[in-house]
Amino acid sequence: MTINTNVFGNLEEKSLELCSLYSSFGYELFRMSKFEEYSLYEKYKDFLVSDSILSFTDIGGRLMALKPDITLSLVKNCIPEKNKVSKFFYKENCYRSVKGSGFKEITQVGLECIGAVNCSIVGEVLWLAAQSLENISEDYVLEVSSLDILMAYMSGLGIDAKIEKKIINCLGEKNIHEIEDICRSVDMAYAIPAFKKLLAINGGIEVLQGVREFCDEFGLEHEYFQLEKALSIFEGKPQAERIQIDFSIAENNNYYNGIVFSGYINGVPDSVLSGGQYDMLLKRMNIKASSIGFAVYMDKLAPVFKKEGCEEDADNENKLLRIALPKGRLGEKAYRMLEKAGYACPEIMEESRKLVFENKEAGVCYFWAKPSDVAIYVERGAADIGVVGKDILLEHTPDVYELLDLGIGKCRMCVAGPKDFTDDRSSTLKVATKFTGIASDYYASNGRDIDIIKLNGSIEIAPVLGLSDVIVDIVETGTTLKENNLAVLEEILNISARLISNKSSYRFKSEQIDQICSCIRLAEETK
Ligand code: PRP
């Protein structure tokens, strides 16, 4: 009897197809329980994507968890044989807290290789990652990076771990302007050109030449050849066109090393596949072996199947670059910059209540959004790029690229309060703010115990009416503080507007996005 897999629906059908692909390459099915002892995650907490874990006590009194991750359990239960590679695939559910949505059951289909993992195994895994994406949609990109190149270059700089972490975060955001600030702040301006070069390496397999030049310059030939060998599996194959080398994949380097990669599908706002070598995790678990694996996040694939049937509409819509602007003065200034850069859409400045404006010739579609919502539109892929204040990026930490500091909307995030206020630390400090994340981080780094009062606007009246001791808020001209008899007590950081991009849009509209960034830069330089 042949089984009709269609009855399961698209996602289940795809999962089965992926499993059958991995099995055809000799991978064995690995089944596991939904539960795991909590202590495993306590020990390797920073390996997890999110730190909230659903836990419970079993009848024997053991603290258990609903599995938030598959790799840790698989590695824990695998005993690698000497000089051999154990190859497994799985289709499992895990339980993670997702930003703003509480806990979710997430279906992952993936594979792991543990043991004597060499370059040809790494190549095979990259090949299977590309095949997995191709099985889901022809319009995909497999983004590949080498953490070894990045980390070897960084360790040559001899910088301290905190600065290194900050730079890695900025690389992950393609945020070269902040890397420049960090380098200058630690007398390391000489490293800026190298970081610029690394971030500029961004394209198909042909950019390997640029990687080679970078590696030759810094004596990283061995690291370069690892990357070249891993990618050689694509030589002469049509899939080579789907590979993008990009050093902004900056995974947790406490666990990952070597080749790391992410998969994107056009129309899905987030990466749908992620993987890499994780020898450092094995080392921390005292397992003498190497490893590589990846997971496909099946739940993220829904838009691929929804799109089917209305492809023409979606295609037309997809061609314009969708730009979210913050309603108000900052948005108007940002629009003027874009206009000067050659992306005019005059209708946008006319008096009306319309929110969406297109200029097909310029290839753009603008829309006005509430300033604090711009990052949400971009992160979720409803906009390809957007303009947003650094305050919002720090407060909500959206998973986006931060491509440019536009240098407009400049202000400061400050602690303010009555002019004569001094914090004698004799009691918990009451802090009113819209920016609870920024305020908590600031006081935590100063070791100060605070009571946060979340407000939504007119923050300045909180200390005036005795609701709080101080406020953490934005100060632009200082007029609001002055007129309410308040003063800046401490400066936390400087703020300005940034141009951000959705990560998936950057893969599929990279020419348009790079073009708009260069035009803005050029227009600013020649003003
Ligand atoms: C912001 C901020 C301050 C004010 C500072 O308020 O929260 O209240 O601007 O500007 P100034 O230093 O030039 O006086 P916003 O206008 O966003 O309104 P809000 O009170 O609703 O936050």
What keywords describe this structure?
single chain, 527 residues, alpha+beta, nine-stranded mixed β-sheet, 23 strands, binds 1-O-pyrophosphono-5-O-phosphono-alpha-D-ribofuranose
Describe the protein's architecture and organization.
This protein is of the alpha+beta class. Helices cover 37% and strands 27% of the residues. The chain is built from 21 helices and 23 strands. The strands form 4 sheets. The chain has a 9-stranded mixed sheet with strand order 1-5-6-12-11-10-7-9-8. It has a 6-stranded mixed sheet with strand order 14-15-13-16-23-17. A 5-stranded mixed sheet has the order 20-19-21-18-22. Strand 10 (257-265) and strand 11 form a beta hairpin. Helix 1 (10-24) runs antiparallel to helix 4 and helix 9 (208-217) packs antiparallel against helix 10 (221-231). The longest helix is centred in the first third of the chain and has 18 residues, at 119-136. The protein is globular. It starts with 9 loop residues before the first helix and ends with a helix. The structure holds 1-O-pyrophosphono-5-O-phosphono-alpha-D-ribofuranose. 1-O-pyrophosphono-5-O-phosphono-alpha-D-ribofuranose binds at residues 457-460, 473-480. 1-O-pyrophosphono-5-O-phosphono-alpha-D-ribofuranose binds next to strand 21 and helix 19.
